[in-house]
Design brief:
Number of helices: 23
Distance between the termini: 19 Å
Radius of gyration: 33 Å
Helix content: 55-70%
Number of strands: 8
Structural class: mainly alpha
Shape: globular
Strand content: 5-15%
Largest sheet: 4 strands, antiparallel
Length: about 675
């Protein structure tokens, strides 16, 4: 047990996970997918032939609500859950509320209904869960039918309101016409002979007023006839594009229990071993460090929320969904990172950040030469492909190739090699000459320009600022100045990446840019709904599923590189660090991964403070990920890159390689 505590803990955790998974009541989820079907061409009653043809030519088809998020809002309401509670369960001779047998049936039903709106396909996937697979399927039919009824009733109600408005307009126009006609008749009766120009002008004015009133009355009559026809038309609100079937397997995934139990067991084992260590020290001076993980998290979210409320933007309001996740994230992350930092033993050498880290000079030189050879070849290869389509919109075409094109083979490793090399060079300076540090930094920027991606540029900036600040070269005021310059550069970079004739390039202001990339992710997160893909952690572990799909495994759902856009009201497709965890696991996922992030970042921060070479380099990447937590997740969604980065960092920071082989050992 003393020699292999982690192995024992893993075995015990695995057994407990299996037992719990077997004991937890299984739930079955029935799934259906619907799409807005209300796409009939609008009626031409009450229109002349020219108007009708113009309406058709301009795309005047009635496309229903044009916003299936209305469906989501209907599913989310308590009234909808209450209506489902009163639905009869076939074969049970009772309502679903009685079938549940709980006090708070409304909340239970809301938990059982999960939905996801796909903005790309304009489809709504609805899932209903229950311990009985037949009941789950039957109640999903009730949910679909009730949704159809509610939305159709809404449309009929809107048609009724439009008809009432048309009737009111007709009555008003009729009264105005009658009044104008009476005034004209009275004038004619009073003036048998019009002898002056003044009387002639008055007569013409009254005649014109009467004609205008008649035209308005005639148009109102046509609109009444048209609205009456629209009201009488019968239609369905949506079409079912994926039929509901009785589920044959339960929803809970064993791998979820295994991962949770094993991770918690390993952390507890590590914590117990640290707790038994007598030589622990708690350095209070670094608790409030600017680049401590808890400091970064609190400062970043405080800054984002402060700017959101101070700046005059047109963004939608932030809802409780974001605030709940933020409270969970900050609380759990801060506690876990501080606790881990305190528990991990200190080397007592916490002021060694001014010195250079030990590293392998020969391996560093090897990768340095490799980087300055691969980077130009990688950039040339990208340009060679893009230039085949001409020089117009060159930067935009480069970005399109990066998103939708295939990799560039071995040359694709250029970016991870240069970034790991750059971090090692920063920490190893001054043993690594300044010109080599600058050369590697330029190589990183060239790689970033080769795919028109701002993340690598931001990585170079954050890494440089972090290392220079910790080495005492720059102060906080310098960081603020450099940050303003970087934001301005990103604005110009984004303009250059846009299409040359796009409205964005012509009309987008700096405030619009700042709002889109800095303040919109929390707002966009509020529009997210739980994924209903029957696959464990589809968003969180998308890299793993991507490789499984490439290796030929069937039935694997792979997410697109480019995420769906949300309108808040500006378009954006970044949703903060919470996005993959919430979409896969809900609030529990946000809380769980906040703990994982906190433990790992606290541990790396302690290694960095201890002067550990690998820890210093890896924590540099962690700082980059934590600074961008308001934007997107950069660890799990870039898992392959993180593993490769760690591999190259470990190679370059090893001064000796030792292989031991003992044939006498059993």
């Amino acid at each position: 047990m003393k020699r292999h505590p982690y192995i024992i803990a893993t075995v015990i955790a695995t057994l407990l996970a299996v037992v719990v998974w077997l004991c937890v009541p299984k739930e079955y989820s029935a799934v259906t997918k619907v799409s807005d079907e209300y796409k009939e061409v609008d009626l031409a009653i009450g229109m002349n032939s020219i108007t009708a043809r113009m309406k058709e030519a301009m795309g005047g088809a009635n496309t229903g609500m044009n916003d299936m998020e209305v469906y989501c809002k209907v599913l989310y309401t308590e009234d909808f859950a209450r209506s489902i509670a009163h639905k009869q369960v076939p074969g049970k001779q009772m309502t679903y509320g009685e079938y549940l047998g709980k006090k708070d049936t409304i909340e239970t039903i809301q938990d059982n209904i999960v939905y996801h709106y796909n903005t790309v396909q304009a489809t709504l996937t609805i899932r209903f869960s229950d311990r009985d697979p037949l009941v789950a399927s039957q109640m999903l039919d009730s949910v679909t039918a009730q949704l159809q009824q509610v939305v159709t009733h809404n449309r009929h109600y809107m048609a009724e309101m439009l008809l009432r408005n048309a009737l009111a307009e007709r009555d008003s126009a009729k009264a105005d016409y009658q009044k104008a006609r009476d005034a004209y008749d009275e004038f004619i009766d009073a003036h048998n002979k019009i002898s002056t120009k003044t009387l002639e002008q008055e007569e013409q004015a009254l005649a014109q007023k009467s004609n205008n009133a008649y035209q308005r009355y005639d148009e109102a009559i046509k609109q009444c006839v048209r609205q009456e026809a629209l009201k009488q038309r019968s239609y369905l609100s949506f079409a079912v594009v994926e039929n509901n079937t009785v589920p044959s397997s339960s929803s809970p995934h064993l791998i979820g229990y295994l991962l949770s139990f094993i991770i918690i067991a390993l952390l507890l084992t590590y914590g117990v071993r640290l707790g038994c260590t007598s030589n622990r020290s708690f350095i209070a001076t670094h608790i409030s460090g600017l680049f401590a993980p808890w400091s970064i998290t609190i400062l970043i979210w405080g800054l984002i929320l402060g700017l959101y409320y101070l700046l005059d933007t047109s963004l939608n309001p932030i809802t409780g969904q974001f605030y709940y996740c933020l409270i969970l994230w900050i609380t759990i992350f801060t506690f876990c990172s501080l606790a881990t930092y305190h528990l991990v033993p200190s080397s007592g050498n916490v002021d060694n950040t001014n010195s250079s880290i030990p590293f392998s000079l020969s391996l560093f030189r090897f990768f340095f030469v490799l980087a300055i050879v691969m980077t130009p070849l990688y950039v040339y290869r990208i340009l060679q492909i893009v230039m085949m389509f001409g020089t117009d919109d060159l930067m935009n075409n480069i970005r399109t190739l990066a998103l939708y094109g295939e990799g560039q083979g071995v040359l694709g490793y250029s970016m991870v090699i240069t970034q790991s090399l750059f971090v090692v060079a920063l920490w190893a300076h001054p043993r690594v000459p300044t010109w080599q540090v600058i050369t590697v930094g330029i190589a990183c920027l060239l790689n970033s320009l080769a795919i028109m991606e701002k993340g690598s540029i931001f990585f170079v900036f954050v890494s440089t600022v972090f290392v220079l600040y910790e080495k005492g070269v720059i102060k906080l005021s310098s960081i603020l100045v450099f940050s303003i310059i970087l934001v301005g550069f990103f604005y110009l970079f984004n303009l250059g990446r846009a299409e040359e004739d796009s409205d964005y390039q012509k009309e987008e202001t700096f405030l619009d840019f700042f709002t889109m990339y800095v303040l919109s992710p929390p707002v966009a997160f509020c529009q997210l709904t739980r994924e209903v893909i029957p696959q464990f952690g589809t968003n969180t572990f998308e890299t793993i599923y991507l490789f499984l799909d490439r290796f030929g495994f069937e039935g694997i759902v792979v997410k697109e590189k480019l995420q769906e856009f949300a309108w808040v009201p500006i378009p954006t497709n970044v949703y903060t660090i919470f996005q993959p965890f919430y979409q896969d696991f809900g609030y529990k996922g946000v809380a769980f991964f906040a703990g994982i992030y906190g433990v790992v970042s606290g541990w790396l921060y302690r290694l960095f403070r201890n002067g550990n070479s690998i820890g210093s380099c890896l924590y540099t990447y962690a700082v980059y990920a934590l600074v961008l937590q308001f934007y997107q997740e950069n660890i799990f969604l870039s898992m392959v890159f993180v593993i490769q980065f760690t591999f190259f960092v470990v190679l370059m920071t090893q001064q000796k390689f030792r292989f031991q082989f003992n044939p006498d050992r059993p």
